[in-house]
Structure formats: structure tokens, C-alpha cells
Design brief:
The chain has 552 residues and is an all-alpha fold. The protein has helices spanning 2-31, 39-49, 70-82, 89-116, 119-122, 126-138, 153-172, 176-190, 198-209, 213-234, 236-248, 254-267, 269-292, 300-324, 335-354, 359-389, 407-412, 425-439, 455-458, 470-478, 485-491, 506-511, 522-526, 536-548; strands spanning 445-447, 497-501, 516-518, 529-533. It has a 4-stranded mixed β-sheet with strand order 1-2-4-3.
Length: 552
Amino acid sequence: MVKKLLYLLLGLNCLACAWILAVRCSSNLDAGAFYSWESLMAYSIWKIQNHLPLYEWPQREPFALTLYNYLFYELYAYLLNRLGVSGAGILLAGRMLTLLFACLGAGVLTSIMREACPEQTRKGTMPLAVMLASLTWLSTSYLGWHALTLRPDVAAVATACIGTLILVHGVAKHSLALVALSGLFFYGCWAQKQSAVTLFLGACLCLLISRKFRSLVVLASFFAIPVLVTLWVGGDQYRYNILIAPRIVGSFSLKAAVSEWGKVIMLNLLVWVLAAVSLGKQVRKLVVIWINGLHETDDVSSALTQCVMACTFVVGLPIATLLLSKEGAGKNHLLEVFVAASVLAFSQLAHLRVLGSKQATQLARFAVSVLAFLWLAYPALQMAYLLIFGSASYGRGLATGQFGLNSLAQLKEGKTPWHVQLASNEQLVERKAVASELASLPKPLFIRDEVFLLPWYATGGRYPAYNPDPIYEEAAVRKGIMMRSLQQLLRQHRFASVILQTEDAALKDALTSDYREVPAPPKIRERGFRLLVYNPDTSTANRRNDGKSGRL
């Protein structure tokens, strides 16, 4: 009875998350071209599609920072080119590609979970593995919108999961060729996101503990050699963007890390509790493997898989906490750790399935059912809120998935974390009207909106576009590495049109740089913006008149 209840709760969770994911996909297709948190990534992919340099100096004009490693951009640009997608479609189709990579990750994780089960408990675990792997990669309680963002995390970790699965088979079959192939897949993960090395480090630690030194050397070599060659061939600008620029943002906050951990743990207690229980049992197994060797165990594949995931979990906790403490970091940095925790949790659930009917076992199964019910609560509340309020729910609360330690206080203020759409119909109509008005203005233009700074809006599809990373720039200005980029570009008259709000400090720089104010289009004016334009002929005449009147 308890087993059926667990399967029912997990199945309902999958259905709820699938429904929410469908709403998000629909919202992305409707409004995704006008709402973005990934403009830097979209611009970099656009540059590759147009055969332009991917990595540039972010402290020099045009002040473009390319945060992630080359393979992410090259892969997405290649796939989007094959699909015939460019311009604003990069945002729409790029997010759908990420969803496909998430589905790939779920499929590979299902196989890894099955490998983690000893032969005697593996039979009949496929439905459980499919549900738990799907909730790891596609649930609203953890990845949420990250499964539909133009970022490298999902594709990179899916690649690392493939490498992990190949490694397990390689070691079990004594095949150094498969181990070498695994190292190349881990390199592929790093080549998409340079900080995604947790599964690789967990695999290395596992091989070290199991004293598989030849496999360890092969795995490390086929990872490290391509990394070193890439760093050497990439050049100074490449190395600065992926290695040095992230360190410029040197502000760390333990409070921010604890807050992100709190969100992930609170909404996914089932995974973390079972992973902790499983990890406690793994310690004794790791000692046995260290003493007797890996191939002295009854099931090599199962022991190795659990060993890799336990090592990844232990190694990943401090790494993820450090990454989460950086300014601008999010829970996506926990994905590798969450994958490892899910495999450990699955092994514990599979073990509970085959235990007898002792009272302690029944209590454990009941506790798991309670945790499964709590896991279902968040997507159920999101569904209920959306069904009650519809698109009007947008804008009344936090971004989806940002449920945190202060959410109760926010609920009392009339705010909610339940909405799942990018925008309401009214907001979308307004954004489209603004985009239409921007199309009629002289290019290139500047507006404090990262979507409308993309080249298909701001420059008429011409290079370069101005779309800086504000977090990097603030840190670089504080450290004296650069001056404020917008101030420099205004003084050099790089924009034909400038749209700023009255309280914007850059307004004074524009007015003192020969920009003159003209009537703004209706929708832009309604949002509190002022329109300034630069006319070289008029500015030259004004300077001549100023000279005749004796002014500087």
C-alpha cells in the first residue's frame, strides 16, 4: 500500500511538472523574444552565426563579455543554423534546445540510476528511475526555468552524465578505451562551462579510492590534455574571458549561498534526506573498496556507480557553496550535486522496495511517502495559483522557483512565488508596441533593457552591439580596470538614439555630449523614458555658434 502511494505521489508530481513545463514552453514561444536573462549568451551565439569574434576584451569597446566556454556557443550556433534560426529566434529556439538537453540528461540519468542498483534490486525499478530522473531534470521544484534558459548548465551536465555512464562500463569491462572516451566527454562538459567539473572530480576520487590507478591516469590525461591545448590555442582574450573575468567579481556572500541552499533543500527534501542516509551507508562501502579493491565486490557496476556519486556529493558540497556565494550566482551551480544526490536517493528507494515488512521498514516507507507528498506540494500550489488567477498572476510575486526563507513574509504582503509565465497578455502587448517604436528610431540605439540592446533591435542587425555585463563592469570600475563604458560611448557619439529615464545618471552625460532631446514615441514616453538623438551636422553647427559667442 505504501509503495503504491509513493508511486502515485511521484507520478502526480511528474504530471504537475509536465503541465507547468508545457505552460512555460507556450509562454516562451509567445513572449520569449521580448523577455530574457540571457542576452549575453544570445549575442555571443549571434556573433558566431555571423562569423564574428566570439571572445573580445570586455574592458574595451565594444565591451562584450563572453562568460562561458567556447563549445556551448559553438554547439548552439551550429544547431540553430541547422534549424535555420537567427535573430530573435535565437532566444526562442535556444531555450527549446536546452529543454531537449534536459530530456537527454533525464534519459542518461535513468540508466545511471539503474546501474546504481545491484542485480537483486534492479528488477522492476524502471518506473521509479524514470520518475525520479525526470523530476531531477524537469521539475519546477529544482531546475524550474533553468530547463528553458539559454545557458550552458543543462547541456554541460548532461554531457558529464554521459561521461559518467561510459566510465562505469569502461571500468567494469576493464576497457581503457572506454575510460579514455569518458575523459573526452568530461572535457566536453568543461568546454561548455568551465566550472562544471564536479562529476569529473568525483569520478577521479572514486578511482583513487578503488585503487584503479591506470584508469585514473587515462581518465585524467584524456581530460587534462585537451583542456591545456584549448587554453593554449584559445589566446589571451579567450583566457581572460573564461578564467580572469569571473575572478574580477570578487564579492562573496555566505548569506547568499545559504539562501540558495535553503530554497533547494526545502523544496526537494525527499532527495536530500535519502541522499544523506545513503551517503552514511556508502562510507563503510568505500572503506571496504579501499581495502579489498573494487572487483572484489559482488556487483562492480553498482558499487562503482554509487562510489562515483558519493564522491561527487562530498566533493561538490564545498565547490557548490563557493560558487553560490558569488555575486549573481544561482541554484544552477548545484546541478551536478543534485544529480549525484538523486542517484543516491534512488539507490535507497530501490533498497526499501525489497526489504521485508518489519515495523522499522514500514516506518521508513511511510516517512518516504510523507516526503514525496511534500515534494508534490510546490508544483501543486503553482498549478492551483495559475488555474485561479491565470496570466494575471504574473508580476504579483517572485520569479518562479525563487521560493526562499522569507517567502512567508512575502505572502503576507500579497506577493506569491507561484506564477509560471514570462508575462501577462497586457505586458506582452506593451513590449511588442515598444519594440515596434524602437524599429522606427535611428540606429544604433541605447536603452536600459538587455533584450532591446540585442543587435536585431538596437543596431539593425549590424556589428557591434553594446550589451555589457553589469556585474563585471561594476567590479572592474571599482578596481580601476576600466571607466564606465556607457559614459565613454556617449562621449564618442556611438549611438544615434539614446533612451533614458529622467533619474538616470547617464542622462547628464548624454546632454553634455551634444545629444538633444526630441519627443519620444507614445509607448516609450508612457514608460517614463526620454528620447535623445545625435545629429553630427546639427552638433557641428552648434559648436560653431558656441565659438562665435565666446563659449567653450
